[in-house]
Amino acid sequence: MEIPPKPPQLLLSSQFSLQNRVCEVTLNSAFLSWKEVGLRQKRTAGNIYGPLKAAGSHYVPVCEIVSVQETEEECPSAGVGKWQKVPQNPSESNSHAFTVSYVERTQKHRWRCSEVTFHCTDGTLCLQWVQAIREQLSLLTIRPKSLLVYINPYGGKHHGKRIYEQKVAPIFSRASIFTDVIVTERANHARDHLKSEAELKKYDGVVCVGGDGMFSEIIHGLISRTQCDSGIDQNRSDETLVPCGLRIGIIPAGSTDCICYATVGSNDPVTSALHIVVGDSQPMDVCSIHHDTTFLRYSVSLLGYGFYGDVLTDSERKRWMGPARYDISGVKTFLSHRYYEGTISFLPADRNVGTPRDKMQCRSGFPKIKKSSAGCLQTDDKQVSKDKEIFSDTDTKGVWQVIRGKFLAINAACMSCACPRSPKGLSPSAHLADGTADLILVRKCSRFDFLCHLLRHTNKDDQFDHPFVEVYRVQQFRFTPRHEETDSELDLREAEGSGRKRIFSQICKEHSACNCGLAQSSWNCDGEILPYAAIQVRVHCQLIKLFARGIEEQSIFDEPSALSAI
Ligand SMILES: Nc1ncnc2c1ncn2[C@@H]1O[C@H](COP(=O)(O)OP(=O)(O)OP(=O)(O)O)[C@@H](O)[C@H]1O
Ligand SMILES: CCCCCCCCCCCCC/C=C/[C@@H](O)[C@H](CO)NC(=O)CCCCC
Ligand SMILES: [Ca+2]
């Protein structure tokens, strides 16, 4: 039987002056609230993006208070050069005041740090309030007190340092968070520092100021350090990796910022800073990628061969263009319309984690997916779709599937990969922490059809609803490009003169410009090119944790019904 939650305990209730009006202010163990005295209370849906409020009432959850401080309103006194307190209005003369900074939701999942200042004539009362609020904040032990910050000064439009100093550092300082800041001096500086030098015990988290490439450096440093400390060999693709203890915060300052966007719902530095301050925690899956017995890289967003690999290869030569390089290279790659041949084998995911086409988008706290002590997933069955269109569990559980063909793109997404270019992402129903990736196969088709498929990433239409697109939810997969297929794999091809084709394939290896389907592409792994085309990929469930909570359902802030318990 579920034990009902305890009602919040009333801690303080007093009258203060707020902008010339008298307000009743209440603090309980869950909320700080205030309402104008004498106003009749009427619950309304209010401003859908505003703070939790009924008409004239404001409710701030204690867990969303950033800080509280005694306020002294001062201005220079003429001529003397000294500063003295000056009341803002008559009712606030002899005024003592305290200011509460708190999270306020605005449009499109963005958060702001708002302030409210309460005035009264009794200094002791103000102090009592400040202490009571601080005491409640001190109970929030999930909040970080000390952070290690890495800034890539060259990510995106080269604004990382300025974004941190102007928008983020003031919020951390208001929340009394200690920071050690390192501005990187070269690529892989942050990775190498985390791997072997950083005194990680000093910190409650690591913050990355940059784009997806910088985030990738941070996870490589942290994951490698954790495996090394635990005696795990990353070159063994069958190893169970040890989850990282420290949470990672992303302050977006890159070109795509897909990981930030898909875990927070926006690419806004202030919003990310506030998610760090309130101590959010979002577990995330990570793919390990091996070539035979060599570990190559980890991936959390896109692993793309063909189209996205070619876009990245071309765009790397245009880094000087900044974020626009992806648009130019995207159009160029689209026009070249190359396809690639090879074999994909994959191990389908358990049916209880849903399917890529079930329209169950990953949202904050839903569906409840927990990693069991045995490392596998437990889901709340009632929340999981019963969509059966691709495989039935009994047919495929634990059985590798093999698909050969000619592909314009082979993409694997461990999460939705939503970003400003594609607000619902490459795989809109992929989940952040379910131990699976969505494998998307785009077979050879006409330019027009491929364009329709690409454009659907930018609107509400279903990009998988084409006869040339297949999508599978997988735990592991392998890819072998056509020219690396073994004799036995080639022998398996039906109705193909295998001897003749193999000779042709060797010729085409050196002839990547010809559109014969036997040329090789490269894998785009979270924005980095992999050195091998033949890879094995395995998803590690919830290997890392972010200072995020997943994308919030906007509707929970539309109406104050959640406040009825107060
Ligand atoms: N000081 C530095 N000098 C040069 N390169 C750096 C430095 N610090 C980090 N890097 C590298 O810069 C690359 C790109 O950085 P980042 O991801 O921040 O920006 P981006 O490429 O513009 O954005 P995105 O990855 O979102 O497309 C990363 O791969 C990182 O390794
Ligand atoms: C001709 C019309 C084309 C319209 C196509 C729109 C489709 C956009 C889907 C975007 C998916 C982004 C996935 C994220 C990948 C990141 O790990 C990676 C590093 O930041 N970014 C890219 O590779 C950059 C990839 C940029 C691709 C354009
Ligand atoms: Ca996943």
UniProtKB/TrEMBL annotation:
GO MF, any single term: ceramide kinase activity
Record-given protein name: Ceramide kinase
- Give a yes or no for keyword Kinase in this entry: yes
Which positions fall inside the DAGKc domain? 142-293
Q: Which PROSITE patterns match?
A: DAGK
UniProt GO cellular component terms? membrane
Top-rank taxon of the source lineage equals Eukaryota
What PANTHER family does its record include? CERAMIDE KINASE, SPHINGOSINE KINASE
Q: Which UniProt keywords apply?
A: Kinase, Transferase
Gene3D superfamilies reported in the protein's UniProt record? 2.60.200.40, Probable inorganic polyphosphate/atp-NAD kinase, domain 1 (3.40.50.10330)
Alphabetical GO biological process terms: ceramide metabolic process
A Pfam family the protein falls into? PH_CERK
